[in-house]
């Protein structure tokens, strides 16, 4: 709010004009007085007009503290003196006769020098001050009204904030009560958790004991069944021999004890293949192979092999050929290093998880998420066997060194050995308490290793169906395990990126490498057994030297996790495959 103009109602006076005249004779003094009165009346009338005109002015600028308002060029107003104040007062109250008498007497005294006008002080215009005070009072009242409005608003805001404070305070108390209640419930749950954990450990131990007893009972049953079959065959042979020795038509002739239907059924089925002997020699056992230098290996070629992730691959045992298995339900065979497609196979109803060449290179075995295992014949371009014994997805498969048996790893916590000649399951290996992720045969042996999500690695004998040894040391799921060519070492990797080398004879860990924190999905050993190749989820392939206990090289190129790695059959190339649906060659 702007303050009003303090000089809006001020009166203005014209600067006094001093009139001087020479001394005149005394006899003309009265006449001059009369003329002066008439002249002064005319001047007063003119002054009234000027004052009325000044009052009608719309705009009057604000005066300085010691000056009146200036009107027009050359005009300068100042505060009224005593005589001006009296004149203004008489004019304002229309006291014209008193004004005439005052003017006459004032000028007479002034002309005679009896009136000292210079020493008279100025008269403060009380009216102006009153008007100024009125305006200030009006302004202050307006400010007071505004302050009252602001105070009312502040009061309402304060009441609102106080209510919100009370609400939040009450809410805070409620939250504190709920917090105390939840803490109490958490303490109770912790106690129950400890009790349940103890119970769980007890039940786990009972379950493991029950599984072991069940496995032993099954093994005993299988042994007794095999013994019974052998006794039946022996009895049949004895009966046939007795019947041949006796004369025809003799009353002592007896029919064989074995059911003819059973004999017919046995005759129609294929016989089981005998397991290879344990004492067959390993040609690489006493040889010393110098490791290749892979420190300068770089990415050479990249091939888009499948439409989806490539989960596994295997190298041909005699040629530069690689087989790949993919999540697109297919497997393919490629030449190296040209990357030309030789053959592809379809038949699985879910992702293909594992693949392996026959030792002679004439067949191929694959495992899949559809719980089946299929054997493929390259010559006839057909599927020769389909095994459906697993009840959950199969993660991996391997041929033994003779190519007559296949071992599998499944999510159903078991490994199985299949006989290709009879098309039957010869043994089911139970002992792991979680998914079996990978299997691998010891070269020229009946022993195979299994890597499991229960953090253990086990050795199994396919002849007896028993667990030979178990390696403990990994702290997370073991994704892959493989033997060295000599068969005296095992390399394994887990989901924490830890790679371990195990001594089979001493049954203990020999060395350890850390490729974490990402999961290590696959590990491979060269022919010397000292260079480790590791593929990880961080899209990298690392090379470690067990002799120097150091990382020698890192290979990059994949755009997603590396799922499998391998050396070619003559150790000149490194091949890898990954979730980016490609397989790559490093040289």
TrEMBL record:
<feature type="region of interest" description="Disordered">
    <location>
        <begin position="263"/>
        <end position="288"/>
    </location>
</feature>
<dbReference type="InterPro" id="IPR050995">
    <property type="entry name" value="WD-F-box_domain-protein"/>
</dbReference>
<keyword id="KW-0677">Repeat</keyword>
<dbReference type="InterPro" id="IPR001680">
    <property type="entry name" value="WD40_rpt"/>
</dbReference>
<dbReference type="InterPro" id="IPR015943">
    <property type="entry name" value="WD40/YVTN_repeat-like_dom_sf"/>
</dbReference>
<feature type="repeat" description="WD">
    <location>
        <begin position="387"/>
        <end position="428"/>
    </location>
</feature>
<dbReference type="InterPro" id="IPR036322">
    <property type="entry name" value="WD40_repeat_dom_sf"/>
</dbReference>
<keyword id="KW-0175">Coiled coil</keyword>
<dbReference type="InterPro" id="IPR020472">
    <property type="entry name" value="WD40_PAC1"/>
</dbReference>
<feature type="repeat" description="WD">
    <location>
        <begin position="345"/>
        <end position="386"/>
    </location>
</feature>
<dbReference type="Pfam" id="PF23414">
    <property type="entry name" value="Beta-prop_EML_2"/>
</dbReference>
<feature type="repeat" description="WD">
    <location>
        <begin position="303"/>
        <end position="344"/>
    </location>
</feature>
<feature type="coiled-coil region">
    <location>
        <begin position="130"/>
        <end position="248"/>
    </location>
</feature>
<protein>
    <recommendedName>
        <fullName>EML-like second beta-propeller domain-containing protein</fullName>
    </recommendedName>
</protein>
<feature type="domain" description="EML-like second beta-propeller">
    <location>
        <begin position="313"/>
        <end position="579"/>
    </location>
</feature>
<feature type="repeat" description="WD">
    <location>
        <begin position="471"/>
        <end position="505"/>
    </location>
</feature>
<dbReference type="InterPro" id="IPR019775">
    <property type="entry name" value="WD40_repeat_CS"/>
</dbReference>
<feature type="repeat" description="WD">
    <location>
        <begin position="555"/>
        <end position="587"/>
    </location>
</feature>
<keyword id="KW-0853">WD repeat</keyword>
<dbReference type="InterPro" id="IPR055442">
    <property type="entry name" value="Beta-prop_EML-like_2nd"/>
</dbReference>
<feature type="repeat" description="WD">
    <location>
        <begin position="429"/>
        <end position="470"/>
    </location>
</feature>
